[in-house]
Each structure stands twice: as structure tokens, then as C-alpha cells.
Amino acid sequence: MRVESSFTIEAWDANGRAVGIETAAPLGGAFIVRAISGGDIEGRSEVLFAGAFNEKHGSGTYVAIDAFEGTIAGKSGTLAFWHANTVARGRPAAGGGLLHIVPDSGTGELAGVSGTGEIIARGDDHTLVLEIRFDDTDEVEIDGEVFAGEVEAGTSEPSA
After folding, report:
1. Helix, coil or strand: residue 17
2. Least crowded by CB within 10 Å, which of 26, 74, 111, 134?
3. CA–CA dist 35, 69 (Å, integer)
4. Which of 32, 37, 40, 28 shows the shortest CA–CA distance to 1?
5. How far apart are alpha carbons 122 and 42 in whole angstroms?
6. Residues facing residue 70 across a β-bridge
7. What are the helix and strand counts (H, E) for the chain?
8. Are the beta carbons of 101 and 65 closer than 8 angstroms?
9. Distance between CA atoms of 146 and 150, rounded to whole angstroms?
């Protein structure tokens, strides 16, 4: 199911930290608060943001993770999603935008939600678009010893 809403930035608090390595695209971080309304998604999110941007060329990349609380398609709860995007010389880079809901992050009526999406920014207009689905199954078996061994070996996916 596709859902979307506009959002505004209520707060942008740069964390004031700097890395010790200088590149042509300086790194920075921020804590952001978004107000989301005017569509299928109503609520707010608190965001941890990190980015690198070259002002001279208008090129950069960011990665961020949101903790959302509110309603999506009339269902209330919380969830987390991560997103990243890249611009090159002021234009979106091909394949540069990603957004994924963090697996098993949903609570309340949003428990079991999964999906992908995008954040669309056109000037001062911002839109959050999600392609979501709900899975009511809680019957997942994970062999903790196998998973821990694979993490130690450098893989991130448990074997089937």
C-alpha cells in the first residue's frame, strides 16, 4: 500500500562534532525533528543525521535514521526507518535514494509493518512516501548460535 504526506523540519540541531580528516566534502551531523501531516501519515519523527557535502560543487551524501510516532493509514504506533541519498552537482544521483523500514521496529498497530519508500525534496516542499505491508506473523525461529557465528565470520544474514 502506498502512503504519503508532507513534512516540515521543526528543529535542526547540528551536533557540533568534527572529524579529524579533511576532505572536499566535510562531514557533519545533526538531530532533526520532523512534523508529518497532510496525507496518509500523521505524526512526528526524531532523526539522527550524518552527511558529507561539498558546497562548491553542490555534491554530497547523507544517511539518517528516523524514530517515528503517529499514524500510518489510520494505524497508530511507532517504527524506525533509515534513508540515504546522494546529489551530484546539484542533481539527484542515479539510484542514490533509499528508504527502508527497520525490520520488527513497529509497535502498537504498526507492529509487523515493513516496506520501502523515499523522501522527495523540491525546494521547501518535502514529502515522505512509503510503500508498506503488514505481516501479522510472529512465528520466526532464529538459531542464535548460528546467527552469532555468522556475525563473527563477517556475514550479516542468517542462513536459511
Report:
1. coil
2. 74
3. 10
4. 40
5. 20
6. 43, 77
7. 1, 9
8. no
9. 6
Q: What is the pLDDT along the chain (160 residues), one digit of tens a residue?
A: 999 999 999 999 998 887 899 999 999 999 999 999 999 999 999 999 999 999 999 999 999 999 999 999 999 999 999 999 999 998 877 777 899 999 999 999 999 999 999 998 887 889 999 999 998 655 555 566 655 656 566 655 555 4
Check if CATH label 3.40.50.720 holds for domain 2-152: no
Nine cell digits for residue 64: 539518517
Helix (H, G, I), strand (E, B) or coil at 137: coil
Q: CA-based diameter of the chain, in Å? A: 52
pTM of the model: 0.80
- Domain ranges in the chain? 2-152
